[in-house]
Every structure is written in C-alpha cells, then in structure tokens.
Amino acid sequence: MCGIAGIIHRGKTGAIGREMTLMLQSMKHRGPDSAGFAVYGTPRAGELAIRFKVAENVDLAAGFEIHDQIKARRAAVDERIRSLGGEVVSVEQATEYAYLYRVKYDGDLRRFADYIEDVEGAEILSIGRGLELVKDLGDASQVSRQYRLGEFVGTHAIGHVRMATESDVDICSAHPYWAYPFSDVSVVHNGQLTNYWSKRRELERRGHRFVSNCDSELIAVYIADKIDGGTSLEDAMTQSVEELDGVFTYLVATSDSLGMAKDVMAAKPMVLYEGEDGIALASEEVAIRTVFPHEIETIDPYAGEARVWRN
Predict the structure, then answer these.
(1) Please, what are the averages of pLDDT over each run of 10 residues along the chain (311 residues)?
(2) Structure pTM?
(3) Which residues have a catalytic role annotated?
C-alpha cells in the first residue's frame, strides 16, 4: 500500500513543510503507521544540517533509565563531533530523542557519519547542506506538528506514509531514506525490489553500508553511487529501470532536483501535475489537489519512464 508524494517549486521557495503535510495527510488511509518528510531549504554557508536520533520513541516507556541513556548518548555525539574537528553551531531538540544539529565540518562525510553512529543507539537520518529528513510514528499531521514542519520554507520535498507489511513499526523502518553517506540525496518508494540482496551485496563490495534492510534505502544508495561516479541524475534513474527488478515507483531528491521513475510494468500508481508554479507528484490525485485546488490537468507517467525537474 503506502503513499508517496513530491513537490518542487520553479525558481522560488515555498511553504513546502505545510504543503507536504497536506499531501501526505490526504493519503493517511494508505499508511497510518508512520510518516516521513525530506525537505530541502536554503543552505547556510559552511554548515551541514544533521538530523539524528539517539533512541526510538517506543523506548521511552522503559522508565528513567532510558532517559539517562539518552542524555549520555547525546553527550557522546557532541564529543565525537568535536574530536573530528567539527563545530556545533546550533541545536534544535525536536523530541527527547531526535535532534537537528547545524555543524561546521569540511572533512570526510563517511568517517564523520560512521564515528557518530558508533555511539550506541545513535542513528543519523540525514546529512546535507539543504536536506533535513524527518520521520516518526503517527500520521503526517502528528509528525509535522511534533517537528514544527509547518514553518519550513524551501524549494522542494518528498514524503511517505507507511503501512508496515514486511518490517517493524519503528522509526528505522520508516521512509524516506537518506543515501548514506552522500550529502542531500533522499528517496521514497512504493513497491518491492526482487533483486534487493544481490544489488545490496554489489554495493557493499564497493564499500557502501546500509542502516536497514529496506529496499528503498538501496535505491537511494544506488542512485547516489551512480551520481558520485559521474552519471547524471536522469541517466542514473533511467539505468535503474533496467537494473532494478520488481514493481516500483520511486521519487528521489537531490540538492536542486526532484526525479521520478516507474518500472516497466507500472503497477504502482503515480499522478503528475506540471504547472508554471511548480510540479507535484503523488500516489493519488487527491494529494496534489490539496496544494493546487484550482482546476488542473494531471497525467499518469508512462511505464518505464524516468523524469527529472530542477528548481
């Protein structure tokens, strides 16, 4: 089931946090277990935005001990950032277990991410110049309110509402997925990859690591690896239609682009609106009309198609 959505403004910024909340909430029936947002704002010179958590929300019922552990884990993250030569510029605490750090750091992102995630319980959700990835249990309105996404202004966003069918109901299994450890690449996905394990082993042999067993994360790392090797986003997505087996429709976002790809059977739905003011895509047309309520024309992208739009 699940539902995915994306929006990108043409040459301007918009209230993408509020817009993505409206789009996802309209598809709550497709996935009531969790909601996730990858939102792209204006980069701050010399700073990385790091979204991470140090516990799952379900852990909080364990009593006072987990609260002490959360404090200790965050202190350990702070120390590791400093030891790598990073400078914490600002901290926002979204929940007791989830944080947004803005950090000045110009070293190797893989080393940085690996060292922080070596702290027990710590998981980096995203690192980027513009990207902030937020996901949690509950519907889109709950998560948006909890993380104050209604105030977020930016250029583009993708989002996901999840019905857990093959993995646990927890934050780690929720979408979107950041392409670890590549800055600003994220993916949402509806479908299933049948060659997940063979492609994962191929990427692991190339030195990549995975934080989940979700096939959506594989798409993110696959695309980022292609881009890192010099392939354009559109070409990487076109190649994915040939190289990834299964039924899938996915959206990928980078620092300045939004892309969509469908497999050759096109069994998973996708509706597209292209206007002068922006582009919106979703699993259901009702999601697009929450943002563009005036009379619009939508299309169903072709089977096996890959398309990219830039801000």
Answers:
(1) 93 96 96 92 95 83 76 95 96 94 95 94 94 95 96 97 72 88 95 95 93 92 95 97 95 97 92 94 96 90 93 88
(2) 0.94
(3) 2
